[in-house]
Amino acid sequence: MGRLEGKVAIVTGAGSGFGAGISTAFAAEGCRVLVCDINEVGGKATAKTNPLLLSFHKMDVTKAVDWKATMDMAMQQFGKVDILVNNAGTSYRNKQTVEVTEEEFQKTFDVNVKGVYLGCNAWIPQAIDRKEGGVIINIASVGATRPRPGLVWYNASKGAVWNATKGLASEYGPHQIRVNSICPLVTGTGLFSHFTGMEDTPENRQKFIFNVPMGRIGEVDDVSSACVFMASSEAKFITGVNLEVDGGRCI
Ligand SMILES: NC(=O)c1ccc[n+]([C@@H]2O[C@H](COP(=O)([O-])OP(=O)(O)OC[C@H]3O[C@@H](n4cnc5c(N)ncnc54)[C@H](O)[C@@H]3O)[C@@H](O)[C@H]2O)c1
Question: What pTM, to 2 d.p., does this model score?
Answer without folding.
Answer: 0.98
